[in-house]
Description:
The protein has 283 residues and is α/β, with parallel strands linked by helices.
Amino acid sequence: MIPVIFNKLSITPILSSVMITGRCNSCCVTCGIWRSQPEGELTTNEWKNVFLQLRNEGVLYLNITGGEPLLRDDLVELVDYANSLGFYISIATNGYLLTEGLSLRLIDAGVKLFTISLDAIGAVFDRMRGFNGAYKKVNFICRRLSQIRKYKKIEILISATLTKETLETILDVVEFAQGLDIPVFFALVDFTPYFFLTAKNNALWISSEKEKLLDEIINELIKIKRKKDSLIRQSYTSLHYIKNYFRDPIQKGIPCSKSLTRICIDYQGRIYGGCWSLGYWGE
């Protein structure tokens, strides 16, 4: 009954994820965007025009992503302009280029939320990111942001991607986040978006021999959420969804609201609807 009602609802996008660059300074095993040589990246003025169009269409939330958005020299200027339009602005970053000084400049320009990718702890994280020293850098900026938050009004979120490689360290990530009072959101390894296709590796998929461990970890996350709800950003329904995702990624009986409430735009200005997996819709 719920999917039937859901499909009849009139829903318009209120959030946009904008990939302001296709360049990246990381070599993540779960993503192939760094293997490409992106061309045709929108200019500063072109992005400002996109932001204005989105705001005029009623979009309220702007998630700036990449590639690695901090590689844009005009990032602070773009944030400042988006802020002048009234957006709630978040930035998704790998954190390697996020110094304390740049963090403060971005906050003053209008960033309200930093989402930092942290899938694992120590050497496992370095291996997932493709170079040594990655964990040390991300560990440092998470700690600095947690300090900055004491005198600047910002939110911080850790995004941890669940893969076969990271599964056994996920609870360590939660422990790290809890120590800094930073909530955690669990992304799921997914090779359907175009920028993930070239990284497709079945060895990263949590296959049947790890299903029991996955269930045990999700059950533990549910217990943690019951003790401190704000630490785990997912709802209980979403956590149960993760249990079945690696058995049945589509789960057709569950409607997806995000595909209706979000619009995605890549670095060339191409529109991908509410989900990168839905493919290119137009410009």
